[in-house]
What we know:
The protein is α+β, with helices and mostly antiparallel strands. It has helices spanning 2-16, 54-57, 162-179, 214-219, 246-260, and strands at residues 141-145, 149-158, 189-195, 199-207, 225-228, 232-240, 264-272, 285-292. The chain has an eight-stranded antiparallel sheet. A hairpin with a 3-residue loop joins strand 3 and strand 4. The chain starts with a helix and ends with a strand. Residues 1-28, 32-36, 41-66 and 111-120 have low confidence and may be disordered.
Amino acid sequence: MRHSNLCMIALAACLTAPVAVPAQTRVAPPASVESTPLAPPSGAAAPAQNAPSAQAQQGQPAQGQTSPAEPQPVQPPPTLPAPAAPQPVQPTPQAPAEPQPVQPPPTLPNPLPAPPAQQQTGTPNPNATLAGKPGDPSDVDEVALTARPVLALPGQASWDQGFQRLSESINLLRAEAGKAGLKIAGRPLALFVETDDNGFKFEAMLPVDRAPDAAASGALANGVRAGQSPTGRSLRFVHTAPYDDIDSTYETITAYLEAKNIVVKDAFLEEYVGELKDPGDPNLEINVYVQPK
């Protein structure tokens, strides 16, 4: 119903509206066309069929056409140059080398002399030992002994009087060194040259700063003479105990030599680092040197 009403309203509007009639307009007749054709626009090319080119009239191909190429004569290949023959290399003569002067070998500096056993001030050290360093009571060390000038005094004693006789011999050597003008240069020594059940024979020694000259030797008395200390490879054992217990140290030495199968000289050398004042001194230190054969 609602759709029918809308259609009727639209139809009525169409019937009542006036129709517009267009007005008549008079058109002028066209002008006469001239017989002269229109010139082509500038830049435009004329058709090829209507304007034949001068080239066509002369029998030449028109532009854009390709004329057959005329045959060209064949050129011979270029002649390659012949390879150059190798020339032998002439060795350049070498001038003989001029002999160079022989340079003498550099002169080596003279070796420095070994430092003296005494102190650097030149004053002899009365406490110097043959090994030059302290020993270890718990070990055995090998040292090399060098000869030193000594004053020597032979002697002998029983085992009971051994300590006293050694002390007296050392004191006598010190006195004789003072009278001869010699300075003590080390600890006193005793070389045991023979032993038995009754006692021993020894040679007490006292290191001095120099070998006595004739005048000094003439001043020596009481059997004292000039000599030298033992030299060579030695084994050093250290005894630090009363002198009365030195037999235990020699037992240790004997056991060590047997275990190592070392054959030694019969002479034993004792060096008294401590003073022989009391045979019961527990701090008495003695170096015992044994020399293998």
